Q: What sequence folds into this?
């Protein structure tokens, strides 16, 4: 069976808030053939329907559960009016790791308190390191909300403490690095700063990459000398993160350093330098980007056009405050 293929959304739509409707959907999923899964009735579930759906969800065969989650994720990308959040929140607690991972991917934009609680309650006990890493990345959205004072103090502290424990204690470097990146949003936190420093000064290459990523998320001049130093690192992955971090920090004294990266051997570093110049703005950056809009490479010219638009907006004193 094609796991992500969906049939036409012209099929009859049952009443979403009845147990009978949920039973019919589950029966359809269980009997699906190569024509694909019809998951649209699982969008916009009411609370009672979602509760009943959670009770019945484990009755589906594992392969159907995974395919249904993938279909919900894909349909939501194609049909923005469809909202599968409540159904996917059920799948986040599935016993199958691949299903949990697909559900987290499908909830990539969800910032609800319910989802935050689910992540905080599960991440340290989650047995699959891929899922833990995805959970750590998802907690980054809530770390950002905390830094913007859009999260209550108790929840913000739970997010902070959980990420710090994962950074310190998780056996997987892949998980620790994602938690470090997520914690990077806590820009003035001494404990987070110390862990970024430890990761940067350590021997693990991927943790050093994530340390630079976290420096960019902090967005403070505290890290600027380190970032400038890494712009000429032999490793392109470190140069890329340093370029991106320089753009996030946004100091005009980075502009000349970034212009040097426009001749980098690595195309991703060059593209990141263009984006960083747009993020920083200023007349020198604008003049450089304007020249790049005439580059022989269509990709470079297009990227420069986008960056130039951002740089000009950044340089407009009348632009609306975010």
A:
């Amino acid at each position: 069976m094609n796991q992500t293929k969906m049939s036409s959304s012209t099929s009859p739509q049952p009443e979403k808030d009845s147990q009978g409707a949920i039973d019919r959907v589950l029966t359809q999923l269980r009997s699906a053939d190569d024509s694909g899964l019809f998951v649209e009735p699982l969008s916009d579930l009411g609370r009672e329907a979602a509760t009943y759906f959670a009770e019945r969800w484990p009755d589906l065969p594992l392969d159907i559960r995974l395919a249904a989650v993938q279909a919900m994720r894909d349909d939501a990308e194609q049909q923005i009016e469809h909202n599968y959040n409540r159904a996917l929140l059920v799948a986040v607690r599935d016993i199958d790791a691949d299903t949990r991972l697909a559900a987290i991917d499908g909830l990539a934009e969800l910032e609800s308190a319910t989802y935050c609680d689910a992540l905080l309650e599960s991440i340290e006990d989650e047995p699959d390191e891929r899922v833990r890493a995805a959970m750590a990345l998802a907690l980054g959205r809530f770390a950002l909300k905390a830094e913007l004072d859009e999260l209550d103090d108790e929840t913000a502290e739970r997010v902070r403490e959980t990420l710090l424990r994962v950074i310190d204690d998780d056996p997987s470097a892949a998980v620790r690095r994602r938690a470090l990146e997520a914690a990077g949003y806590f820009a003035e936190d001494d404990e987070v700063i110390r862990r970024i420093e430890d990761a940067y000064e350590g021997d693990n290459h991927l943790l050093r990459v994530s340390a630079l990523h976290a420096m960019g998320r902090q967005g403070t001049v505290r890290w600027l000398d380190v970032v400038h130093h890494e712009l000429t690192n032999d490793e392109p992955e470190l140069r890329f993160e340093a370029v991106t971090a320089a753009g996030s920090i946004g100091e005009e004294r980075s502009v000349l350093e970034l212009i040097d990266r426009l001749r980098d051997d690595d195309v991703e570093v060059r593209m990141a330098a263009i984006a960083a110049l747009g993020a920083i703005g200023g007349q020198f950056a604008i003049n450089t980007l304007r020249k790049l809009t005439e580059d022989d490479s269509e990709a470079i010219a297009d990227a420069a056009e986008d960056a130039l638009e951002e740089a000009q907006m950044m340089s407009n004193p009348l632009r609306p405050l975010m």
Remarks:
- The CA atoms of residues 58 and 95 lie 9 Å apart.
- Confidence is low (pLDDT under 50) at residues 1-15.
- The two ends are 47 Å apart (CA to CA).
- Residues 129-147 form the longest helix (19 residues).
